[in-house]
């Protein structure tokens, strides 16, 4: 749109001549017309803004069904816990009284793991994953089994590097993993009113690195809604320790508990621990990462000692 000219006669270029030929309109006549045009422009702009806002809001709603934020990135949660009724999933597995969930729910805490610990543990993920990485958007490193995404497959780091693995990971790295695992285990036990010693670390336990690269294989499709007890079998309690910050390090990638009409999101941030009972009372998914890189670690526990694994250690 051409800019409005008040004194057309003063401007030699453009359509100043045409304006000069207009019937002798006085300043008095022009004022209401000018006001009308300004008003129309403002109204048009306002309507466009409202339409754009509505479309954006609607697309987010349709995309995610997001209704509520359970843990906002700016909050520092000492311990938020929401109880939800247990599903019947646990009945089709052997029960371990005092451990198998009778109280179900989900919790988030920002005080279990310090930011400094999260940064150090992220360092382990970075150096391990720098040795490989999926061709698609989602890579994992499993310190217990040694599995590492490479291209469209996985390799066993421990087999591949043999003794040289000691040049990559240090004893402090494994000690840090153990400390983090122990603190998360205590937090889960306390929140669900069970004894920490009734919980067994179970597999898989893995670091994940997600970026916005297009998926190449089914392993890259991390965003599907799922139930951990169905996906992983041995899981009774799942925990996620986030190692990077939503909207600082990456966009998209929020964790979503899926509930009819009222999904609940957890916005990741370094050091935030999210934990929940692994049955279908906690159906969930991860939003697609739109930009940047998202690091997290999945640490899960079983009530069944037969499904227990030792802490990751040098092979
Ligand atoms: O990374 C996350 O936030 C969730 C990952 C997840 O759902 C899983 O590992 O089962
Ligand atoms: Fe999951």
UniProtKB/TrEMBL annotation:
Keyword Cytoplasm: no
Domain spans labelled Fe2OG dioxygenase: 203-305
Keyword field: Dioxygenase, Glycoprotein, Iron, Membrane, Metal-binding, Oxidoreductase, Signal-anchor, Transmembrane, Transmembrane helix, Vitamin C
Pfam families: 2OG-FeII_Oxy_3
InterPro entries: OGFOD3, Oxoglu/Fe-dep_dioxygenase_dom, Pro_4_hyd_alph, Pro_4_hyd_alph_FE2OG_OXY
Renumbered residue ranges of the record's region Disordered: 1-36
Cofactor(s) this protein requires: L-ascorbate
Xref: Gene3D superfamilies: q2cbj1_9rhob like domain (2.60.120.620)
Listed Basic and acidic residues bias regions: 18-36
UniProt GO MF annotations: dioxygenase activity; iron ion binding; L-ascorbic acid binding; oxidoreductase activity, acting on paired donors, with incorporation or reduction of molecular oxygen
Membrane topology: Single-pass type II membrane protein
UniProt main location, coarse: membrane
Cell compartments where the protein resides: Membrane
Gene Ontology CC terms, in alphabetical order: membrane
Signal peptide: none
Family under the similarity heading: Belongs to the OGFOD3 family.
Protein name (database record): 2-oxoglutarate and iron-dependent oxygenase domain-containing protein 3
Organism: Carlito syrichta
């Amino acid at each position: 749109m051409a800019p409005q000219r008040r004194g057309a006669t003063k401007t030699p270029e453009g359509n100043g001549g045409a304006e000069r030929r207009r019937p002798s309109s006085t300043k008095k006549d022009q004022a209401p017309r000018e006001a009308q045009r300004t008003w129309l422009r403002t109204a048009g702009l306002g309507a466009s803004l409202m339409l754009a806002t509505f479309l954006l809001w609607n697309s987010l709603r349709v995309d995610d069904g997001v209704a509520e934020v359970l843990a906002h990135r700016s909050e520092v949660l000492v311990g938020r816990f929401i109880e939800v009724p247990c599903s019947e999933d646990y009945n089709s597995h052997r029960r371990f009284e005092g451990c198998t969930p009778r109280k179900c729910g989900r919790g988030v805490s920002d005080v279990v793991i310090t930011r400094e610990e999260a940064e150090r543990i992220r360092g382990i993920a970075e150096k391990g994953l720098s040795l490989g990485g999926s061709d698609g958007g989602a890579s994992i490193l499993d310190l217990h089994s040694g599995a590492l995404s490479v291209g469209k497959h996985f390799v066993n780091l421990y087999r591949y590097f043999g003794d040289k693995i000691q040049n990559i990971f240090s004893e402090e790295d494994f000690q840090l993993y153990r400390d983090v695992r122990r603190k998360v285990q205590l937090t889960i036990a306390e929140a669900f009113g069970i004894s920490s010693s009734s919980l067994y670390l179970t597999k898989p336990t893995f670091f994940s690195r997600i970026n916005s690269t297009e998926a190449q294989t089914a392993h890259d499709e991390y965003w599907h809604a799922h139930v951990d007890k169905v996906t992983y079998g041995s899981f009774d309690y799942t925990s996620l320790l986030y190692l990077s910050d939503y909207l600082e390090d990456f966009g998209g990638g929020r964790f979503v508990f899926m509930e009819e009409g009222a999904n609940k999101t957890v916005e990741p941030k370094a050091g935030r621990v999210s934990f929940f009972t692994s049955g279908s009372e906690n159906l969930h998914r991860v939003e697609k990462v739109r930009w940047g890189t998202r690091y997290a670690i999945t640490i899960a526990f079983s009530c069944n000692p037969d499904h227990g694994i030792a802490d990751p250690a040098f092979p």
